[in-house]
Write a structure and sequence with these properties.
With 157 residues, the protein is an alpha+beta fold. It is 27% helix and 33% strand.
Amino acid sequence: MGYIEELRSLVGTRPINLVGSTVILTDGEGRILLQKRTFPVGKWGLPGGLMELGESAEETGRREVKEETNLEVGRLKLVNVYSGQDQYIEAENGDQFYSVTVCFHSEEFEGQLKLQRSEGTKLEFICPKDLPDDMVASHRKMVEDFMKNKKNQKDDA
């Protein structure tokens, strides 16, 4: 039994805070790796997931990318930390939580892209201007913030 399952056995479905990481992986063409996720069902999102006990946010991001895509991630740059009332989630099983998500960006990765069927149904590099309509809202916000920050950095240069 994992950490989250143990915690849930103690607190039931009532609201808790959970920490996780997402990673915006960009390829040489500036496209972003998205996966059609198994949770929430059929929604596109970034690779990522919840932190295990004792893990750093960076370790969580790297582990989740490896588990979900088979890619090894290099250097990570912080995009932002997302928390608060608008990060409330109620899972299909009734579990309630507030997500604290640390979003990173990397363009350094290696390995053979391989879908993990328990995590998603499709992996695809997608141009940011062509983001799917059926995307996890919080992940869309992360990509939008990333693109805005990237544009501002170019404007300042």
